[in-house]
Every structure is written in C-alpha cells, then in structure tokens.
Design brief:
The chain is built from six helices and seven strands. 39% of the residues lie in helices and 17% in strands. The protein starts with 6 loop residues before the first strand and ends with a strand. The protein has a single domain, classed as NAD(P)-binding Rossmann-like Domain (Rossmann fold, 3-Layer(aba) Sandwich), CATH 3.40.50.720.
C-alpha cells in the first residue's frame, strides 16, 4: 500500500486522529494538506496548513481553490455530544450536524469539481459503529453520524463511475487524549489506536482500494 505522489487534504488535522493520519500520509509518500480551525504555533512547520471554518462553504471553497491538485480528502473534522434525545432545548443537535455533517458537505462540495476535472480521486469519511443503532443520550451524535454514512453511500453512487471512490470507516472509541480524559474509568487498551485507524483510512485512498465503493467499514479494535 502506498500513497506516493498523492496530495491528501485532511480536515480536523490538529486533533488526535488528525495527527496520526498526517503521520501515516507522510510515511506513505504523500503530501498532506492540513485543515483545521486553528493550529498550534509549532504544529507541522514544514507542511501546508489552512485555518478555516469548514461550516462556511464559501471560505472552504476558497481554501480548496488555493490547494492545487487534491487526490484524496479525509473528512476527520467532527465532534461528540451526549444529552437526552427528547430535550428540544439541547444545543447539541444543531452543533452535531454543523460539526459532523456540514463540515463534510462543505469540503466535498469544494473538492469534487477538482476530482472530476482530474479524472478521479478518493474521499474517506468518519462514521461511527455506535450510529448503526440508537443509544440512550446519543440521539444527536448518532443521527449526525448516520447522516454521514448515508451521504457516503449516496456520494459513492453518484461518483463511482467518474473515478471517485467514496467510503467511510466506522470506528468504535478512538484512543485519543480527549477520550481518555472524558472516560477515565474505561480501559483504553480495548479502543482503536489512532495509528491503526489511520492505516485503514490511507488504504481506502490507495490504488489497491480502487474497487471499493460506498463501503462502511467497521474498525472496532477489541471493543
């Protein structure tokens, strides 16, 4: 498996998963194009970085217009939220759809015309195993990730005959600092290591995955 010579746009690049994916992309010979709201001052000093709000479709289109060729897009940007599903006052519903769905739609809208002009590309989204069915206090999160999964299938159906592979990984809990802090009593050895998930994401963007379209691939570690 290799991404040699490819240019890979990574949203949410400053996060725990984003850092692991960036490292994997570089290791496999590709050029990462890093996207996030803000980067620490010493973050990836030798890489191309774009600070923008992905919920702003115009700003996203403008940023992608400056990137040149983009061979793959990894939609890692997103968030997590827990609250009673019946609480109509809960701001988490709108926040989850902005963070998990609108960011993806803005990035896809910006990159697909490029890929069509280039004659192909790959898009990898992040769904969730937990969104395969409903769970208490996870209505907003599960609904937004379900939307990501259905969008993945729809985009694949629209684009696969034009040389663009669209797939998604469905992780369980990812072993990030934020998840360790939020679940201090859990056993992170059962979770998915970011490096392992990064390898699966990179595979789906490689030439060896060119026959895979619209897949929702579970990556659950030992959980």
């Amino acid at each position: 498996m290799s991404l040699t010579g490819k240019r890979v746009a990574i949203t949410g690049a400053a996060g725990g998963l984003g850092r692991a994916v960036t490292a994997a992309v570089i290791e496999q010979g590709a050029t990462p194009l890093l996207i996030d709201l803000k980067f620490p001052g010493d973050f990836a000093p030798d890489q191309e970085k774009f600070e923008l709000d992905l919920t702003d479709a115009r700003a996203t289109a403008s940023a992608f217009g400056k990137m040149g060729r983009v061979d793959a897009l990894f939609n890692l940007a997103g968030g997590f939220h827990m609250a009673p599903s019946h609480d109509i006052e809960d701001p988490g519903w709108d926040n989850m759809f902005r963070m998990n769905v609108q960011t993806l739609r803005s990035a896809v809208a910006a990159v697909v015309p490029k890929m069509l002009d280039q004659g192909g590309g790959a898009i990898v989204n992040i769904g969730a195993i937990g969104a395969l069915q409903g769970h208490g206090n996870l209505g907003a999160y599960g609904a937004s990730k379900s939307a990501v999964m259905r969008l993945t299938e729809s985009l694949s159906d629209e684009l696969r005959e034009q040389g663009i592979n669209v797939n998604a990984v469905l992780p369980s809990v990812i072993d990030t600092p934020a998840n360790r802090e939020g679940m201090p009593d859990a056993d992170p050895s059962q979770w998915v290591a970011p490096e392992d998930l990064a390898n699966v994401i990179c595979f789906l963007a490689s030439d060896r995955a060119r026959a895979i379209h619209g897949a929702l691939l579970p990556v659950r570690g030992l959980s």
